[in-house]
Amino acid sequence: METIKVLVTNRKGGVGKSTIAANLAAYLALQENLKVSLIDYDEQSSSSAWVKKAPNIGIETFRAEMSYQSAGMTLLSARSSLRKFSTGFDVSISDLTWTPNMAENFMHDFDIILVPTSTSKFELASTEIFILEYVLRNSPLISKNKQSIMAVPSRVEANFLETSISTNLGSLGMCHITPPVLRANDIDHFVYEDFFCVSSNAAISTYFCRFGAFVAKQILDKKRERAIPVSKLSSIYSGLGKGILILDRYRSNKKLAGMQARSQMQSMKSSEFIGDDSSSIPSFLSKQN
Length: 289
Prior knowledge:
alpha/beta; Rossmann fold; eight-stranded parallel β-sheet; 8 strands; about 40% helix
């Protein structure tokens, strides 16, 4: 059966993207007995270096060769690496920091997209907007490709409450929030030496195995979906319209707030020329008795 392709991406660094890519590859190889390739698109090559220097567990790692001469050449070289290095595997995992140089069409080549994020409200909102905008622009292809998109709460603390995560992604049938990935404070003890899913640190391994099992189930579901006609998948994507309305409402509120602010500023400027009538002075500038 054709390889299931997983993309781990985010527009910013420092969210545990490469850590998740390397350790997910290890989980799928060790715990699910899958033949896995890891394709590293990042210049730092963090995820592939981790896997190469750790004990050999059968993961094939590849460094993608990218051309940045133009957006078209970047897309062509990215797709060439994906085809070349995913063939013959059960699952391929691509580690990529998303940049404006990368055409959004590249996302269409994947069955599952993982977007790691911190749990701060600002980062969650940024991740939510990134996903909703992608869905808005590409809904026909997302439905056709039976694509799943997952936000991954990353580097959480041990006392983190999963119920504290609140996003609008739940209304979209193809979007999910995965179990969180625990922060490894002693990360240097893992890099190049060990993997989270087999760590002697029970909390680290328990958290990551829950996450890995969740993604593994999605991979199995993808294999099954390929045998189902597209017409029978409508219920999976039934929330798409609602998700688009959420994004439209977000934009409308932002636009309305800007209009109200401009209106207030114009009123304030007008009041400067009305004279000594205190009723024309903005309240926050009036002398308080």
